[in-house]
């Protein structure tokens, strides 16, 4: 089952937090079943003057890092919803947004008080230079 529609809505908030300079980090967590892949950590980087995402795949014994444009990262991350992750958390300086699947595979998106007081330094530096 693809969760494209609900993840599109969630990912629009991710892109909005990049635009308004509040993005701190994005984390895929809470695996379903026993998985070698434990987490995916997403953070902004600047490569050749372009804002991109670094995706760090944290396995039990290793880490793999991949780089994608903000748009292409969506397609790379979508298959991991429900396989193996049941939770994705967007951390911003204004709120934390939690994308969660329950046991019946129903999606809920809720916001909470922010965990981080500061946005990603890479993002803030990029915005200062480009806007």
Order of helices and strands: HEEEEHEEEH
Please state the overall shape, judged from the principal axes of the Cα atoms.
Answer: globular
Percent of sequence in beta strands: 35-45%
CA distance, first residue to last residue: 40 Å
- Radius of gyration, Cα only, in angstroms? 14 Å
Number of strands: 7
Structure description:
This protein is α+β, with helices and mostly antiparallel strands and 131 residues long. It is 26% helix and 44% strand. The protein is built from 3 helices and 7 strands, in the order H-E-E-E-E-H-E-E-E-H. The protein has helices spanning 4-19, 70-77, 121-130; strands spanning 23-31, 37-47, 50-59, 63-69, 85-92, 96-101, 107-112. The protein has a 7-stranded antiparallel β-sheet with strand order 4-3-2-1-5-6-7. The longest helix has 16 residues, at 4-19. The chain is globular, with a radius of gyration of 14 Å. The chain starts with a helix and ends with a helix. The mean pLDDT is 94.
Question: What order do the helices and strands come in, and which of them pair?
Answer:
Layout lengths: L3 H16 L3 E9 L5 E11 L2 E10 L3 E7 H8 L7 E8 L3 E6 L5 E6 L8 H10 L1
Antiparallel strand pairs: 1-2, 1-5, 2-3, 3-4, 5-6, 6-7
